Structures are given as C-alpha cells and as structure tokens.
Fold:
Amino acid sequence: MDFGVSSVLRRWPLVLAVGLPACTADTRVPPFARVPFQPFSHEAVVAIALREWRAFGSPVATEEQPRKPERVEGLWQRVGEYWWLGLDPADSATGWTGKHDASGRVFPPEADEAFAWSAAFVSYTMRMAGAGTGFAYAAGHDRYIHAAMRGDPGSVVVAERPEAYAPRPGDLICAGRGDSAGLRFDDIPRTPLFKAHCDIVVRLGDPEGLAVVGGNVADAVTLRHFPVTVEGRLSDDGCLAVLRLRDTPIASTR
Structure:
C-alpha cells in the first residue's frame, strides 16, 4: 500500500472538494436553513411568517397601531435580522436595521421609505424556511417576481395570473405600488425595475377573505385580508401576480 507523497497528492482533490462548501457557504445563515435540515415547505413558510407577526404583537391592519414599531427596542434589531439574514452578503443593505443605516447612523423616521424592508422580510422568511438557492433574495420585490415569471426549474416560486389561480397558504400575493400601482401580469416582462409589495398567505377561509402577513405594513409585520371569489381567487383587480410555491422539495445544499 502506498502511503507516500504521491498518495497524499492524489487525495488532495477529494479533500478540497469536501472542504469547499464550508469555505463558500454563507455562514451567517444557520445550518438548519442553509443545508436545509428539512425540505422547504408551505408549512414552514407560514409558520415562520406567523412567528414574526407574533413577535410584533400580532397587529391587524384594521386596528389602530402604535407609531413606528420598527424603531422600538427589540424590533429594530429584528428588522436588522431580516436585512442581515434575508439578503445575500454582497448586498449593501445587509447592515441596515429598523432605524439605522449600514454605518450605524440613526435615520429620521420620515426617511424610512429609503429603508423599506418588506422584501427583506419575505427574503428572510423564505431563507429560514429552507428555500436555499431556489429564491432570488433581494431588497426589492421586483427581482424575485421576475424570477418567478421566468419559471426557472430550480425556483421555489412560479408566477400565476391572479384571475386564474386560487392562492394557497405560503404563496405570495404581489401588487405594484407608487408609480407602478397600475402594473398588471402582462406588464411584468417589459418592466425591468418597478416598485411592488408582496404578502405571504397564511390562512384561508376567514370571513374577511384571504389572510396574509406582510413586512413593513404600518411599519410592522402586519396581518390583513384580501377579498376572494367563491372559487378562492382574488377579487381585487389591483393584484399584479400570485407567486405559487412549488410542491417539489428543494435539493439539499450540503
């Protein structure tokens, strides 16, 4: 048996290959989400979204809310975790919090539009649920809406027409906002950058309609409802797209 230098050199490619994931993986993401320990699922997305909603005091959009909960102790740090864990390391927004920029300076409350964290919340939820490389984590919703429109085989979401598909728990309800409020499904491929907002469906069957949870709604993680038809499809014609969660489990990234 050869235990000489040539044997060691022959084993180096294997050693390097085994060590590569540990060197290249984003170690900020906990192993349970990065590997993931369990397959990505609708149930995980809903459970994590509801957990974050409870952390903010379970606010409902129709009720009066305290002003700027994103800036209070315990919650501005939570928003910081959405930025830090939800986005990819190269994104310049990863150092933001609910009231700080990346340098740690407190920005004034009236400037919070420049630090809108709703897409970071969705990205965080998907990453913690184990979406792995199957989601386009970003500070803006338009990036993962475009990815869902392309229908990439490895993507955990695929875009559906709101008038033709009945959302299920874990799906994302997306609408344009600001000067993009009039955008509709057929406009998406021709619009590379646009303002949008997406909420996560957490429950069906409420008298008020489809229950969703979204980040940065009234400066909190807030629950609200969308009216639906008897078939379960959205009756609000202001919706841009529904991003359907695929049923196929995502492969491990070990």
